[in-house]
User: Fold this.
Amino acid sequence: MNRTNILDEIERYLDEHLVEKEFVPGISEVPVSGSHITIADKLSLIDTVLDGWYTEHSVSIQLAKELAKYIGVGYCSLCNSGSSADTLAINAVKHLFKGGYKVITTAVCFPTIITPIVQNFYQPIFIDTDPLTLQPDLNKLEELLDSDDVAGVILTHILGFPFDAARVQKICEKSNKFYIEDNCDSYSSEVNGKRTGSFGTFSTLSMFPAHLFTSGEGGAIFANSSKAIKLVEQYKNWGRDCYCLPGQQNICGNRFEYIWNKLPAGYDHKYTFTRLGYNMKITDLQAALGLSQFHRIDETVKARRNNYNYLYFMLLYRYPEYIEFIHIMDWATPTPFGFPIFIKKDAPFNRNDLTRYLEEHKVRTRTVFSGNITRQPMMEQVYYEIAQPLVGSDAIMERMLWVGCHPELTKNHLDYISEVIEGFFKDKGLK
Assistant:
């Protein structure tokens, strides 16, 4: 039996055993996120298994090239998670920009942004976020960037709703400060028609199952500078100076010709280490799944946007006294990661009331990241600075939740979400 026969047989098996789950309102769960794994995705994995090479190699190279081309940057390096991508970007950027010890970020962020800031001996300084637009306070950011104490900025596009990445790029370039664009939630969103992830010194991506497309676990770092991406590659690959992938030999043609201060002359370049690095590589198995998923990205983006819009117009005019939704900026084209719901301050119920009702009726919910991260227990271990009152961040923490709008959800799911929210207001005697 040849390879084609094997794959044909497996496809036949998968097709025969494919079970479409019927959605039963009130019985079936409405997941808040999820990845749509197709037969083609599974066959891509199996095809790569048959190649017999499982760590980072040719499939990873292909995926990296396609990801970079999609957002319009020169280079992409894959890694094992979006959190690792942020870690690698912060480790690398300190070699490109000197001076300063503070890094500006928003209090509404994911904890693994804070970890590499602190581990690299920077001090986080927090600015606020507007709960109705999910925009960071860029006026405060611009003011802070005038300080010599500030090294740079790392900001997150929250839930697929982009901040003004072009403005941040301009003010960072003006002050010669680094700019890391955390694009893990928002790959394929746009600012003035240009894709997010193309503005920063570095940008990062997550391919976790909840995100736009998945490699199971996986992440990526993007840059327009070959010097910048080489630093990322070094930190990702144990800190070694060589950029050969596993299994590659002597790509530079000088493997045994290098001279280092304390090493024997001609010491093997594959085992010459110039950074205190990690092993954060992706595997070709992960890349195979990611590549197959990525080839459907236009379809996925369209489904997310359609699902978001459907929910938005189903709910927009029903409960304006009590709940609000994100106000999308004129220059922004989001690819929503979820559907946020913001409870008005004077509403006769709180976020937990609505959350519990939705969960009891099998509609799964999430909070927005950490809320105001300075209130999280982990921050008791961290020295940080608050640049302004975090009023918006507190409001997001206390009064915002989100439900799903991902492509696995059908019209029946979305109608049920709307019905459950309507039921909540009826039970409260508000409609």
In short: Residues 297-427 form a domain with the Aspartate Aminotransferase, domain 1 fold (CATH 3.90.1150.10). The mean pLDDT is 94. Residues 297-315 form the longest helix (19 residues). The chain has 13 helices and 14 strands.
